[in-house]
Write a structure and sequence with these properties.
Length: about 400
Amino acid sequence: MRLVRTVLVRAPHVGLLRLGRFDERIAAHLDGVAVSGAFGMTLAQRTLERAGKGEVFMVTVRALEDADTRRLDALLAISETESGCRAGLLSAFGWVSPGILQGLAQRLLTSPSAWRREVGLTACLMHGVDPGPALKAALSVPDAGLRGRALRTAGRIARVDLLGHCLAALVDDDARCRYEAACAALLLGDRGESVSAMAAMVISGGPFSLAALRLVLKTVPVRHAQAMLAQLSKEPSRLRTLICGIGMAGDPQLVPWLIAQMEDLKLMRLAGESFSFITGLDLAYLDLERKPPEGVDFGPNDDPADENVEMDQDDGLPWPDAAKIAAWWQANGVRFSLGARYFMGELPSPGHCVRVLSTGYQRQRIAAAQYLSLLTPGTPLFDTRAPALRQRRLLARMTVGAVA
């Protein structure tokens, strides 16, 4: 179930309500293990023979809630050597209530082990707690994993005092650290060196290019965004990246081109999503979709002779009806000003972002969280992956604060 949730928190068709219902299923499953006592824990412990993310998540949650330090030490040791199960352990620290981690997080932050310090930083980040001096100290350690985690934490919890350290890390020897440094500096308010670094990542086409594009296009002037997209348009192999970028740039001038891409079966759903990012329209709700084409399968199937095992990248997105959408744009496009940046139908603003965080789908909510921090540097990044109940509580406080 933990693996399914990993997919749901990035899904284009899942909102906070559905995520909350799935969280209730996970909680019920964990409660069942707890109620079964020693027998249930013994069975759960046996699953560690496979040491997968889901198994480590379940056993770590129980170890944390039972305050079983011996078992937790064993799990930390396993995850230190088996990097494939680290995500399961980290997500368990984010799942439990913050009171359970009091004292434990501080011990992890002062551990001689780089991995345990990384766990401590992640626990603080997921619960919105400032790690204090341990964060600054971790920015200059030899271990790239810990260094990258420290940069990520600095940006997301809005440690503006560490902006200079993040800018200095733009030339780090490790590629992920350079990416995290650029993200952090951008979130903390820099609009110079970090923008240039991210633009270079976008053009290079490396592993962080798409993530960098989605963030940097929310900050640069529209004319700069147009130039960046024009550069991408020269590379046919990066057409999907271009379509994603247009949605993030929010330029209504490019909507007709997006609609034209909705004639291509392989691109139409992605183009429809970018159209929704600009206009705020729910294509399925407004009946602007068509039936899925018959005999078309872009993901793995039951044919043993088919070597395609990659998942459908656009699974969950509606199939847009290009003719209906073109007609809607013909009638309503005048509401959108050329040369402006739109996000979900409006000019980006903190209030609008909070509304999207409350009612949008996960990909839209991720973008809203980024906008919220970018619009007001010093605002911690809202965690759209946190347990839904915790997200609702934070949103309630944000809404009350906005009204006040």
